[in-house]
């Protein structure tokens, strides 16, 4: 029986709302261009005309790099000297060439050149990688006409304006083309624009009738024409131009334009002529220049540099004033002072001497500002990026694609994200729907459970087993009845092989069994609507004899597969209106039927009084489907009289072929007239197949406290359905539309925001609005060329390296293969990188203050003489060798908790957005620690060595001995401090801390072996003077303990009385409470979830509350005594 119905449907007459080609006499007149903006002239098939002005247009070469060969040096230097510290060291290096410098020029210039050079080399390497990805696109091949009807393959970058190109099926268009002809006789082609506007439906493009004969290579031998049109602009949906051919002029509109990066589908080939190339194309016009992005921490670091520079100037002023006073009042009495040939100090002019000394002091105290900080951070970030690239948990086995940190400048910014702005198509969805359930004539069909139902059942089962509940349990005789309602049917063990798009299981409708159902006639209508009411394009598979479908939305594809499985196969194409979709058919009896589907709110408003028989039951089923996370549509129909249809069809045909601005309004009005007095048939429920792990990823990000926005080019209904599928939306949420004023103020307080029908430019503008309006870190993620603008505009851009080109990846800062990897990128690597960089920078300032201020104390102690207590080589090696490696290991390997704990306790991520580890309180705390350490190091050593013998033979300490002992104490103190700071130790950290201390002694021994001409005052100082002296070793122990005791007391007090989240988790893991006390472990995990109204968990919780309420009601009916006799306390 089913086969017979299938055959009759193939032979039935279909009348659709599809567009008709207007008759030739109704075509508009040529456009009359007035004013600027319409100066483009294209000589078709004559690219040579565009090699010189005024018709010389840009090439088809595209570049997304930040630098080129010419601009690299000036732009890279500008980037480096945007950093305040580098500007200071440039000035200091210049001043080191003058006589007033306390150090040699080499000791100042060499570190600066090394730091700047290393940073620029890193920028050049990252820019090279971007260039190579650009070249992959530029070197794609397309077939180009070279003359005499001959076509050859050329790289995209060689295509010029005016070239005639031939694009084959499933290839991208290399530039914006005027569509001339196709492999179809009527000059149509099907185009997928997902890369441009995010829509997955195929667009039908039509060539001008006059160019239809240009249907093979030879036809272009003598082809000549001229196009006059609008100038390059970013608007994807408009085009105005004229086509002059064969002494006739024809108007052009968007239906004849094939845009770059859209794809040819279901068409063997097309011919087109290039109108806009390269950066003039509309997709590139929507892109923005590669921005120069700096992380929040790096910007704040500049403010810290200002603070330190202020401190530097302050103590330099104090030093210069002290020097001026000494020079003017005391130096005339110093008979032993020789004449100063350089005129640096002059007792007769103390003010001038003080000004000169100010320069000396600014250079001397420059170690307060760490020159190696930037290069150390650069090195750490590169190594962090290497770990991101090699994270096996972010490797996509299906495509063989790893994660890629395309720039390492923003690693720590990953841990400070407040708002994620995501594309939909190809990013969240995989464009697949599964037909799961349906309601026909008030009867529910479909036994399989959705992912939300399964998750809710699993969670309730864990709750029932794990601990007691506040809802009553039922007695044994009724337990099985309730259990059937709580635990859905498992999704495994299917009796037949599931087909893609069809997960329906119910024997009542399968294999023709629906004919035995009580309402078989209504079920027949339901299947007809399922098979006919859509906008899909059928394509016959010659091998199998069946049809495949290119649908406007994935749910339509699922409907067609389901209809085929039920015995109804479709082979015609229909058209949709905005909110609903209708088709008019004549069945085998001659009855004309209007078949309609749409959102339930729209369909129910159009039902007739006698068409609501199943409304109450259908609404109940729709609510249940919505709670289960399924995407729903309502089905209805209406019988039409022949006279009514004929009159309406005449009006409809006139409206279709009319020319004017009110054409769409006329069509909508006529559609509204016919789609009235409908009779409800039923509803469908399909499960939106998101990309693997998307709901779980969104759920985890929501628990981490992140706000998630979706920006899509899809229509509103599709966007809302995706929102429900992703668990960004759920039943009961209030939806707010069309808000024009105070958009941002309202949006930032919403649980989720979905922006639909947005162009690429608008995506970038929304991203900018959120970034600038909130002042918080934004992350944009997408996979297509339409996402490039927002990816570049956001603080962090993430590209998904999917199958739809690499434009998003080329413009991104980080690239991943699937959206689900964003969870680990942020919650694990982002959290780690933020804390590592924050702690690393704070430690850097601590150790440089601890070291640098000792120079100030010593100069004050020696009459502001400008004398350094340390040898030049000590100072040169302090940041480069002796303290750099442990801090680098901190930045690379430090983990407050493991990656598994990060994922189990997502609320830990909020430490980044709240900036708990790099706020001014913590920064000044570390500075204060450095100040304390400098005081202890200097004054304890002065007290110990100043006026007593330190060797057995009674010798006292000279400046070299005091300086070396003091420097040794600094090395020990700062290395012990970093050991106390670390939470996660490997052999590498142990080795590097020990190596830093050991390297100091190795250097001291080797340096002391050199001739006194080289080693000067430190000749054999360690072997002969320091190592035999017990007081030297005791002073090291005393100073190191005294320096680190306050930090140890502080951290002990904090962990005991005011612990942070990670402190609690560390204690639990250390005492293995996660294994010994699972109940406590689950409690702590539940507390570590940020309160949120979105995400899979929020939806599951809502489902659990619903199920518990049903259980309570059922239990109160089954056990009335529970109400009469309360449980004794």
UniProtKB/TrEMBL annotation:
Residues 809-1059 form the P-type ATPase C-terminal domain. GO terms for molecular function: ATP binding; ATP hydrolysis activity; ATPase-coupled intramembrane lipid transporter activity; magnesium ion binding. Keywords: ATP-binding, Magnesium, Membrane, Metal-binding, Nucleotide-binding, Translocase, Transmembrane, Transmembrane helix. Its cofactor is Mg(2+). Residues 44-109 form the P-type ATPase N-terminal domain. Signal peptide: none annotated. Mg(2+) binds at residues 423, 425, 783, 787. Its main location: membrane. ATP binds at residues 423-425, 556, 597, 631, 712-714, 757, 763, 786-787. The keyword Nucleotide-binding applies. SUPFAM superfamilies: Calcium ATPase, transduction domain A (SSF81653), Calcium ATPase, transmembrane domain M (SSF81665), HAD-like (SSF56784), Metal cation-transporting ATPase, ATP-binding domain N (SSF81660). This is Phospholipid-transporting ATPase. It comes from Cynara cardunculus var. scolymus (Globe artichoke).
């Amino acid at each position: 029986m089913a086969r017979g119905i299938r055959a009759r449907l193939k032979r039935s007459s279909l009348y659709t709302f599809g567009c008709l080609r207007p008759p030739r006499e109704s075509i508009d007149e040529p456009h009359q261009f007035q004013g600027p903006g319409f100066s483009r002239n294209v000589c078709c098939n004559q690219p040579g005309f565009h090699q010189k002005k005024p018709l010389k247009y840009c090439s088809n070469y595209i570049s997304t790099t930040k630098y080129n060969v010419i601009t690299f040096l000036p732009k890279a230097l500008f980037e480096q000297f945007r950093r305040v510290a580098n500007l200071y060291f440039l000035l200091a290096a210049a001043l080191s060439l003058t006589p007033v410098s306390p150090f040699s020029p080499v000791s100042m210039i060499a570190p600066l050149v090394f730091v700047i050079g290393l940073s620029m080399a890193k920028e050049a390497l990252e820019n090279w990688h971007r260039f190579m990805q650009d070249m992959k696109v530029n070197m794609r091949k397309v077939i180009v006409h070279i003359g005499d009807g001959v076509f050859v393959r050329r790289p995209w970058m060689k295509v010029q304006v005016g070239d005639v190109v031939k694009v084959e099926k499933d290839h991208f268009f290399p530039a914006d083309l005027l569509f001339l002809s196709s492999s179809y006789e009527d000059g149509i082609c099907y185009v997928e624009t997902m890369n441009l506007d995010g829509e997955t439906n195929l667009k039908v493009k039509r060539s001008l009738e006059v160019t239809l004969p240009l249907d093979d290579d030879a036809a272009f031998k003598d082809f000549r024409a001229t196009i006059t049109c609008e100038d390059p602009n970013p608007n994807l949906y408009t085009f105005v131009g004229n086509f002059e051919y064969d002494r006739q002029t024809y108007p052009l509109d968007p239906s004849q334009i094939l845009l770059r990066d859209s794809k040819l589908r279901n068409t063997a080939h097309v011919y087109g002529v290039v109108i806009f190339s390269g950066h003039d194309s509309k997709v590139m016009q929507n892109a923005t220049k590669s921005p120069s992005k700096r992380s929040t921490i790096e910007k704040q670091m500049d403010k810290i540099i200002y603070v330190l520079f202020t401190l530097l100037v302050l103590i330099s002023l104090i030093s210069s004033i002290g020097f001026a006073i000494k020079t003017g009042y005391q130096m005339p009495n110093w008979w032993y002072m020789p004449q100063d040939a350089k005129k640096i100090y002059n007792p007769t002019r103390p003010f001038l001497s003080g000004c000169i000394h100010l320069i000396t002091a600014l250079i001397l105290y420059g170690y307060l500002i760490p020159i190696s900080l930037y290069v150390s951070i650069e090195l750490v970030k590169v190594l962090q990026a290497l770990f991101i690239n090699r994270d096996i948990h972010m490797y996509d086995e299906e495509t063989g694609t790893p994660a890629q940190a395309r720039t390492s400048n923003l690693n720590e910014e990953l841990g400070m994200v407040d708002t994620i702005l995501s594309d939909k198509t190809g990013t969240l969805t995989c464009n697949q729907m599964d037909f799961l359930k349906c309601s026909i004539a008030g009867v529910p069909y479909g036994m399989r459970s959705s992912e939300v139902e399964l998750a809710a059942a699993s969670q309730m089962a864990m709750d029932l087993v794990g601990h007691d509940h506040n809802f009553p349990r039922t007695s044994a005789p009724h337990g099985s009845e309730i259990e059937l309602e709580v635990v859905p049917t498992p999704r495994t063990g299917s009796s037949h092989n599931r087909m893609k798009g069809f997960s329906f299981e119910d024997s009542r409708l399968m294999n023709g069994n629906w004919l035995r159902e009580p309402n078989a006639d209504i079920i027949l209508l339901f299947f007809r609507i399922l098979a006919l009411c859509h906008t899909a394009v059928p394509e016959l598979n010659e091998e199998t004899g069946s049809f495949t479908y290119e649908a406007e939305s994935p749910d339509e594809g699922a409907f067609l597969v389901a209809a085929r499985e039920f015995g109804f196969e479709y082979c015609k194409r229909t058209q949709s209106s905005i909110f609903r979709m209708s088709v008019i058919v004549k069945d085998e009896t001659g009855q004309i039927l209007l078949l309609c589907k749409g959102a339930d709110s729209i369909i129910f408003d159009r039902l007739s009084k006698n068409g609501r028989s199943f409304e109450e039951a259908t609404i109940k089923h729709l609510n249940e489907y919505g709670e289960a996370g399924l995407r729903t549509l309502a089905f209805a129909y209406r019988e039409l009289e022949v006279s009514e249809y004929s009159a309406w069809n005449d009006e409809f045909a006139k409206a279709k072929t009319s020319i004017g601005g009110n054409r769409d309004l006329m069509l909508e009005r006529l559609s509204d007239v016919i789609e009235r007095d409908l009779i409800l048939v039923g509803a469908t429920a399909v499960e939106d197949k998101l990309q693997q792990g998307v709901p779980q990823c969104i759920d985890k990000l929501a628990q981490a406290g992140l706000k998630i926005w979706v920006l899509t080019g899809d229509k509103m209904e599709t966007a809302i359905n995706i929102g429900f599928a992703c668990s960004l939306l759920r039943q009961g949420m209030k939806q707010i539309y069309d808000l024009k004023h105070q958009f941002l103020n309202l949006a930032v307080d919403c649980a989720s925001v979905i922006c639909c029908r947005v162009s690429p430019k608008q995506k970038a503008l929304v991203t900018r609005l959120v970034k600038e309006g909130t002042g918080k870190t934004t992350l944009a993620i997408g996979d297509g060329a339409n996402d490039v603008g927002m990816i570049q505009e956001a603080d962090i851009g993430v590209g998904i390296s999917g199958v739809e080109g690499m434009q998003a990846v080329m413009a991104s800062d980080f690239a991943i293969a699937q959206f689900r990897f964003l969870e680990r990128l942020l919650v694990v690597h982002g959290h780690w990188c933020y804390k590592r960089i924050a702690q690393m920078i704070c430690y850097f300032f601590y150790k440089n203050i601890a070291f640098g201020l000792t120079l100030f104390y010593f100069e004050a102690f020696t009459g502001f003489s400008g004398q350094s207590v340390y040898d030049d080589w000590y100072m040169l090696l302090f940041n480069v060798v002796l303290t750099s490696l442990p801090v680098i290991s901190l930045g690379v390997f430090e983990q407050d908790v493991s990656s598994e704990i990060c994922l189990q306790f997502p609320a830990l991520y909020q430490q980044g957005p709240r900036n708990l580890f790099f706020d001014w309180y913590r920064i000044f705390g570390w500075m204060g620690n450095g100040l304390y350490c400098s005081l202890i190091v200097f004054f304890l050593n002065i007290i110990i060595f100043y006026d007593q013998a330190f060797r057995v033979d009674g010798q006292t300490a000279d400046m070299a001995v005091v300086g070396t002992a003091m420097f040794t104490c600094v090395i020990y103190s700062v290395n012990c401090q970093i050991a106390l700071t670390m939470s996660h130790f490997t052999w590498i950290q142990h080795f590097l801390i020990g190596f830093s201390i050991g390297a100091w002694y190795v250097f001291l021994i080797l340096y002391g072996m050199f001739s006194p001409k080289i080693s000067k005052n430190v000749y054999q100082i360690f072997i002969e003077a320091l190592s035999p002296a017990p007081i030297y070793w005791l002073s090291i122990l005393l100073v190191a303990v005294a320096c680190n005791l306050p930090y140890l007391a502080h951290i002990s007090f904090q962990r005991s009385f005011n612990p942070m989240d990670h402190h609690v988790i560390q204690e639990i893991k250390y005492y293995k409470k996660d294994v010994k006390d699972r109940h406590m472990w689950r409690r702590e995990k539940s507390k570590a979830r940020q309160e949120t109204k979105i995400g899979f968990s929020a939806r599951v919780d809502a489902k659990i509350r619903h199920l518990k309420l049903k259980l309570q009601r059922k239990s109160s009916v089954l056990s009335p005594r529970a109400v009469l006799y309360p449980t004794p306390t």
